[in-house]
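[Automated response] Your request has been received and processed.

Submitted sequence:
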Amino acid sequence: MVDELLVYPTDRVVGIAPDRDTLDAVHAALGASGVADDRVEVLCGEDASHQLDADGDEGGLLRSAVRTVQQVLGEETERLRILEQAVDAGGYVVKVALPDDLEDEAFDTEKRAVGNALHDAGATNVAYYGPNAIEELQLGA
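Generated structure:
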């Protein structure tokens, strides 16, 4: 059960597509940017809401404990709440994995390219989830 819990999607650019049209635009933009389909994960519906469960209300004591630690350690809980609200409203959470074999400069370039593709397609709340921090991406610049 805890394996299903969205914990920290490390080395991922994450954004919200509020509707199906935006999701389709995101898929097209990512494809045009050279992002392979197997790097993209889309969360939606009741399963996603359960997986996001920002407060840990739905999964018992262990899940609640994990969420309590996350609340103490950083901003992840608030971001999970935003993602959960988007899914509950019928939206989609798009997670794009970044290649782990890139040098720092190439990694940053890829991170920005993926973030810009999401942003330009209409996704909101686009951020990079790194090993120790969540970075709000300043895009389009």
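Summary generated for your ticket: The chain has five helices and five strands. The chain has a mean pLDDT of 79.
If you did not submit this request, please reply to this message.
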